[in-house]
Amino acid sequence: MAMFSDLIRDLALIDLPMTNQTYTWPNMQHKPTLAKLDRFLVSTEWDLSFPLSKVKALPRITSDHTPIILTTGLLPTPRRFRFERVWLTKDDFLLKVPSWWNEVPCKQSAILSITAKLRHCRTRIKEWCKSNYHSISHTKKLIQEELQRIDHLEEHSDLSQESLDKRTNLKGQLQLILKEEEILWNTRAKQLWLKEGDGNTKFFHAVANSRK
């Protein structure tokens, strides 16, 4: 541990503090031992380039280590419309698409009809996504906040059985939401592969190997 501390000092690395939690690991005992084992270390150049960087702790789900996320504070870029495979897992989506398609009357030209119907469906899908996935995103946020509250409570006192059971239940709900997100990101990874081709070979081999 002393050698690691010396290395951090010699390289002049900065340990970015977490904004919402102190510790990242408990030993999961009735009277837990708490420690900060997970952290982001950045160089001075990074700190100057990304002065708005923040580190946030996320709820523990399967591991006994708290996942941490680093955000740079950069402005998001506009998103373009893309079809997501995860939508096909939603029964209401499969039922709505035909009705959306038929909301636009056919025109004399088949090409104009198809174009108009596709544009209308795109608009309706965006509305559906905003309503449906805003709700999922909101639910995920509430679950994460409640898990965070329980984790904070554990830092200061022993958890009751009710709190332990509640945390287990919330983790199960969060796993279902994360499964949907996994389908979403797997689809986007394939899209990136098709777009970039061999340029991503090393990256995807590394991802595949890390999952074995």
TrEMBL record:
Q: Which SUPFAM superfamilies match?
A: DNase I-like
Give the highest taxon in the source lineage: Eukaryota
- Gene3D superfamilies documented for this protein: Endonuclease/exonuclease/phosphatase (3.60.10.10)
Q: What name goes with this protein?
A: Uncharacterized protein LOC109704977
Q: What is the lineage of its organism?
A: Eukaryota, Viridiplantae, Streptophyta, Embryophyta, Tracheophyta
